[in-house]
Amino acid sequence: MAGLMEDEVFKAFSTYAAIVILKMMLMGPMTGFYRHARGAFSNEEDVSGKSAEEKKKQLRTHPDVERVRRCHLNDLENIVPFVMVGLLYALTGPELSSALLHFRLFAGSRIFHTVAYVGALPQPSRGLSWILGMLVTFSMAYRVLSTVLLL
């Protein structure tokens, strides 16, 4: 295990995995912020202690809140596979430059995806950033399978 922590590719993977995981984790508090700022809550207990009229007004959806929430779900669908495949990829012994390219492209694509999603940038900005992240993950998966495939 100590040798793994000395490996440059593993260190790079750990760095970029931590960045995208932290980005994903920040989406929860960001959703809460948007809910409070827009006065749009989804659960009865979120508006407990309010008058019936106030509850009716605040128990609703808001496009900004839904956009952030969907972005968070999209992160779960993309960052979790990246972390799992990226770990296996790092263990295949790729060149550092190739690994850094994969990790940086994925992290950049996810950060831009969030900016495009939350900022409601016009398509195809969000779609292209999503595709880039998926292609990076597929590329790493291909390397893993082509290196260790045993059927």
From TrEMBL:
One of its GO terms (cellular component) is endoplasmic reticulum membrane. Keywords: Acetylation, Endoplasmic reticulum, Membrane, Mitochondrion, Mitochondrion outer membrane, Transferase, Transmembrane, Transmembrane helix. The keyword DNA repair does not apply. It catalyses: RX + glutathione = an S-substituted glutathione + a halide anion + H(+). It is found in: Endoplasmic reticulum membrane; Mitochondrion outer membrane. The chain crosses the membrane at residues 12-34, 79-107, 127-145. The keyword Mitochondrion applies. One of its GO terms (molecular function) is glutathione transferase activity. Belongs to the MAPEG family. This is Microsomal glutathione S-transferase 1. The lineage of its organism: Eukaryota, Metazoa, Chordata, Craniata, Vertebrata. The gene is MGST1.
